[in-house]
Every structure is written in C-alpha cells, then in structure tokens.
Amino acid sequence: MTLVAGVDSSTQSCKVVVRDAETGALVREGRAPHPDGTEVDPAAWAAALQTAIGEAGGFADVAAVAVGGQQHGMVCLDEDGEVVRPALLWNDTRSARAATDLTAELGGGQAWADAVGLVPVASFTVTKLRWLAEHEPASAARTAAVCLPHDWLTWQLAGTPGLDALVTDRGDASGTGYWSPLTEEYRPDLLERAFGRRPVLPRVLGPAERAGVV
C-alpha cells in the first residue's frame, strides 16, 4: 500500500492526514492548535506541524506530502532565512489605509483588477508590505525575502535549503497583489510601489512540479 499525506495549516490549527493513495481511505491523522491572534511567530506553525505529524504516525512510510495553508499573510525573512518579525495573517487589518492608498496610486480599483485580478484590501500581502515599509522601516530594511505562511511551512519541511529554494503555487501567488494570473508572472513594479524595492519571492510552481524533498 502506497501512503500519501496531506497537511492543512489553517489559521486555527494544523491538521495532517495519511491516506491510501489508491483508495483514498484514511489510515491515520493528527492535529495541533495554532495560537490566537492576527500576528503569529511562524515557529508556532512549525511546532504544531511536528506535533500533528507525530500524532499521525510520522512520515517515514509516506511517499509524498502535499501542503495547503492560510493565504495572504506576510512572512519576512532576512538574508540568513531567519524570521524578521511575527507574521501578519490574512485577518490582520492594520494595513487598511495602505490598501486605500495603493488603490488610489495606481488609478483606482479597475487598474488593479486589470493588472493582477484583484483590488487591494487589508488581507493581501501587498498592503502589508506597504504598512511594514511605512511603520517598521528597520524590519523592512532587514527583509531579504517575502513569502506566505504556506510557502514558509513547505520550505521548513524541505529543510530550509536557502532563500532561492522558496516556492509557492498559483493559488497563493494570485492572492499577494503582485502576481498576475493573466501573464503568470510577478509584477515587480507593483512590489516596488508597495515596498520600495524587490525582495526575493518564491518561485511559482506548476501544477505537477515538486516543491522539494522531505
């Protein structure tokens, strides 16, 4: 029997299921809670993941792992891959003013919709980057790479092999505010508008591409 595992790192908890790849039958599972709040140290996600994996019997006999997680948040990493500050989650609304400003700067909501398929609101990463640049310039200056919670957890599972190994998928990238689902490319001009420069961003994987090795 070939086993596969799924990880769901949501706002409230981390859940792991191990299933028979052929039948889909549940073999075992585990879960662990995440801290409350809209600002979270990513280390808490890693700890919850390891607890959930342990409860699910581990991955030693698992052939493949798929990771899903909360979207839109902001995880900032320095040049050594260390977390710069607690991650801002999708439900953190402190960047609402930044969303309004960015929308106006580009010429309104339609201009954003044409560019990246969305209109900025406080949930999206692009607005959180503007907030960081304006309110925590020292943290912004330390930031060498930006990724989403899902991306960071995948990177942790792969052994944090370097900033250039960060990866994401089309679903997560399309919720950042600086990736176009039409061209399937990042919009560095929008990133620079929000943050003032271009940090390292995760490579956007194709549907069948492998993210790494556990």
UniProtKB/TrEMBL annotation:
Entry annotated with the keyword Transferase = yes
Per the UniProt record, one Pfam family is: FGGY_N
- Reading the lineage from the top rank, the first entry is Bacteria
Q: Which spans of this chain does the record mark as coiled coil?
A: none
SUPFAM superfamilies per the UniProt record, alphabetical: Actin-like ATPase domain (SSF53067)
Keyword Endoplasmic reticulum assigned to the entry: answer is no
Carbohydrate kinase FGGY N-terminal domain residues are 4-213
A biological-process GO annotation = D-xylose metabolic process
What are the protein's UniProt keywords? Carbohydrate metabolism, Kinase, Transferase, Xylose metabolism
Q: Which GO terms describe its molecular function?
A: kinase activity; phosphotransferase activity, alcohol group as acceptor
The record's similarity note reads: Belongs to the FGGY kinase family.
Descriptive protein name: Xylulose kinase
> What high-level taxonomic lineage is stated for the organism?
Bacteria, Bacillati, Actinomycetota, Actinomycetes, Geodermatophilales
